[in-house]
Amino acid sequence: MRNKEDIKELLDYFQNTEDNPLKFDEEAIFSAYQKNSDNQSLPIKILSVFGGVLASLAFLGFLFIAGLYTSDLGLLVFGGIFIAVSIWINKKYDRIIIDTVSVSSFIIGFILIGFGLGQLKVNEDIISIIFIIIAFSSLSIVQNYILSFVSVLIINGSILTLIISNNAYNLIHFHVSVLALTIVLFFVKEAKIITINKTFSKLYNPIRIGLIFSLLSGLVFLGKRGILPVSTDYIWISSIIIISSIVYLISTLFNLLHIIESKHKISIYIFTLLTLLPTALSPAISGAILIILLSFMVNYKTGLAIGIISFIYFISQYYYDLNFTLLTKSILLFLSGILFIGLYLFTHKKLTSNEKV
Amino acid sequence: MKNIQREDIQIISRHSDLTEKGIDRVLKVNVYNNKESWQKFFRLFNISLGVGFTVAGIVFFFAYNWADLHKFVKIGLTQGVLIATTIAALLPKINDNIRNVILTGASVLVGVLFAVFGQIYQTGANAYDFFLAWTVFVTIWVLVSKFSPLWLLYLVLINTTFILYSQQVAKDWSEVFICFLLFIINAAVLISTIYFGKKKTPNWFLNTVALASASYATIGIVIGIFDKHQTTFAILILITAPVFALGIWHGLKTKSSFYLSVIPFSLIIIVSALLIKISDGEMMFLLVSLFIIGSATLTIKNLIDFQKKWTNEK
């Protein structure tokens, strides 16, 4: 949060960066800073999500003990009301303090509608599609941070349900690939997306974190064997997409790092491919690396932390699942370790000699 | 210009005719990482992966059951690697961060050494004394290094030792008492780090330890609520109360919204558990649901008020 002088100074700075005179709606900017509803600190966001989830769980307990889950029509009507109310109060009072109320009401609404449709023996696919439609409409009506984040997760969960309930497990590669490409686009084209219009600008942060979690959920299905009977025949599809995305990112870095000579570029490409190739059978690892690189590029700390934690998890899972003797695993790990230490020493030398020149 | 955040760019772009190109430039200059930080990133990335993989390779190497190898060779080999690593950490040319990463690797190798010892003399891989020995023998390095990841490893070791001890030796300890002990240990570390560490300790370390302490206290109290009444439960509450109060005070003093949200959230869970203990009828669940919404909203409202006050004080 900033005070008035800060904002004035900021506006001057922005004016100086552009050649043509800019138009600012100063009053709107001041009041936006006053309200600043979607840029709260992380603890507040987590508090409202956890509070909302806990409250919904307690409410679910109430429903079950009271036996209120038998009336299908009642469930549907109340579910609809809960979702409508949560969207309405957000639209009406765009304030962070009502987030817990609206997020619990939102989740409870989905639970009720899900139960209601289940009672009516509606097919899972239709329920998933209905959920996707509701979540999308909510995104287009309100752009509140928490609600949009939950909506993205609901959409992702519904797509996964569609894949699983139709036993179309191999489509998960398609899902992961599309998610990976979307995330790359989202991070690289940040300026483009937030200038499309106000709706996109407000949705940018919640969708970004929602996409990261969605990609992770897809990667978990690929990375941990045995959750889903995903055939290994198609696993290269996800890998190719993710690895090419990483290579693309590296190529955008050349400019920033002032690497001009094509000899250097080619050796960096070859090295990147060589290190990533052994992970071709585990797109989860390269996916985590993609999240780390993207988040570091745009200086997004939450994403970076999520990426590092998932990277450590996927690496351990990979070696745990590997069907080699411990001795072979040990040699593999040891050699890659030496490779990275060598790389460290090599770049260290190179950089220090560059600095001297 | 001081410290332009992504939020500033978003808010201002919504109410102005800033162009995509302009925003892209401002983002690249003010928000995105530059050449120097990328170089630092790659250096740290390489050395962490290098040390991590190498140490993991060594761990797996010794986990493989070498029936033919004489025990002297086994322990000698591990110790040789350990000594080599420690010497590497003492090389004068490297910078402090890298030195600490290597020292952390060496601390893990101490664990390997004891594991090999345990393998030879059949003490079992999860015996508490294995972790106790590991903890004791890395203590000096931990103290010398002042390196937060190593400190975190150390704390994990202490916690593991206690949990295993309670499972293997002190089987008569109640769950509440175990939570109580772990709470005391972690809270003590947290408080002394804040008190003696001044501003050097990174926030993520303090927050992790604070989260662990609050979780132990919460779990202990919730178990205590549903368990038969016992003296440890009373002591746990008597100690948790001032520690939580201290946490709130510290949060207010340092303007950290982390403490001001973790502690109230823990209290919300405790009160909800208490309510469900009183009655587990349907109306109570409805009440609990409303209580959580109400109290979480109240907490958030207070947090926002504090943040506004802090901004204006600046």
Q: Name the poorly predicted regions of chain A.
A: none
Number of helices of chain B: 12
**Percentage of helical residues of chain A?**
over 70%
- Overall morphology of chain B: flat
Shape label of chain A: flat
Total strand segments of chain B: 0
Structural class, judged by helices and strands of chain B?
mainly alpha
- Say what oligomer this is: heterodimer
Beta-strand content of chain A: under 5%
Number of strands of chain A: 0
Whole-number total of structural domains of chain A: 3
Measured by residues with Cβ under 8 Å of the partner chain's Cβ, the largest interface is: A-B, 87 and 84 residues
The helix tally of chain A amounts to 15
Which radius of gyration of chain A do the C-alpha atoms yield?
24 Å
Question: Kindly, what is the distance between the CA atoms of the first and last residues of chain B, rounded to a whole number of angstroms?
Answer: 17 Å
Q: What structural class do you assign from the helix and strand content of chain A?
A: mainly alpha
Structural domain tally of chain B: 2
Structural write-up:
- The complex is a heterodimer of chains A (357) and B (314).
- In chain A, helix 4 (72-92) packs antiparallel against helix 5, helix 6 runs antiparallel to helix 7 (145-165) and helix 9 packs across helix 10 (198-223).
- Chain A has three domains: 1-36, no CATH class; 41-168, no CATH class; 172-191 and 209-323, no CATH class.
- The longest helix of chain A has 31 residues, at 326-356.
- Chain A is flat, with a radius of gyration of 24 Å.
- Chain A starts with a helix and ends with a helix.
- Chain A is mainly alpha-helical and 357 residues long.
- Chain A has helices spanning 4-17, 26-35, 42-66, 72-92, 99-119, 124-141, 145-165, 171-188, 190-196, 198-223, 235-256, 262-276, 283-297, 301-321, 326-356.
- Chain B has 314 residues and is mostly helical.
- Chain B folds into two domains: 43-146, no CATH class; 173-314, no CATH class.
- The longest helix of chain B has 32 residues, at 282-313.
- Chain B is flat.
- Classes of the chains: A mainly alpha (357), B mainly alpha (314).
- At the A-B interface, helix 1, helix 2, helix 3, helix 5 and helix 9 of A face helix 1, helix 2, helix 3, helix 11 and helix 12 of B.
